[in-house]
Design brief:
about 200 residues, alpha+beta, Arc Repressor Mutant, subunit A, Thiol Ester Dehydrase, Chain A, 6-stranded antiparallel beta sheet, 6 helices
């Protein structure tokens, strides 16, 4: 059996890096693998790996099809990856409308809403609600930031889930939260008939 060529080794490493972080740009991959951006593009083409925008779009479609406890339109940010009962990822671009006028810092409720809706999305139940949230804003976030939130179910006891959500801007953690989410047996919508 012959040893792998330099190109084959590089392509294996490229695939491993993308498995660890599917949001790596060609530029980041070029830096990591110490090759040109053109080499990365050629390697991706040879491996059948689409560009970042196409990978993200494909992941988002697959993730939204798995939703149970929350509707797609209730997700704050863009749901990118979802393994029900285990973990999930969402992305959110901070726009000028989302920041405080005086300081230019992103309003905290946007980061909380992104994390909370992601925590609800990972629940394996027809409906769920937030029981407790312990949150920490670590550093200010400004317009233009691309926030990637990752949720992980760390414990499940009966109908209660403990979920950690960590939000990063580039590689810096900017927000984290620990949620206690309670699953409900079935979604119940209040109607005028229920109130009468």
């Amino acid at each position: 059996m012959s040893a792998l060529t330099k190109k084959q080794t590089r392509q294996q490493r490229l695939q491993q890096e993308l498995e660890k972080n599917p949001f790596l740009t060609d530029e980041h991959l070029a830096d990591i693998l110490e090759v040109s951006i053109q080499t990365i593009r050629l390697d991706r083409l040879a491996l059948g790996v689409p560009e970042l925008r196409e990978r993200t779009r494909h992941m988002a479609i697959e993730a939204q099809e798995k939703l149970q406890a929350i509707a797609t339109e209730d997700i704050v940010g863009q749901l990118i990856d979802l393994e029900i009962g285990q973990n999930g990822i969402s992305m959110m671009q901070v726009t000028p409308e989302m920041v405080l006028k005086r300081t230019g810092v992103a309003r905290g409720h946007y980061m909380f809403a992104q994390a909370n809706s992601l925590a609800l999305a990972v629940i394996d139940a027809p409906a769920a609600l937030t029981g407790i949230a312990n949150i920490k804003y670590k550093v200010p976030v400004y317009s233009g930031a691309n926030l990637v939130a990752r949720a992980e179910v760390v414990r499940k006891t009966d109908n209660k889930y403990t979920i950690w959500v960590k939000t990063r801007n580039n590689n810096q953690e900017v927000f984290r939260a620990k949620f206690l989410i309670v699953s409900l047996p079935a979604e119940r919508k209040n109607t005028d008939e229920d109130r009468n």
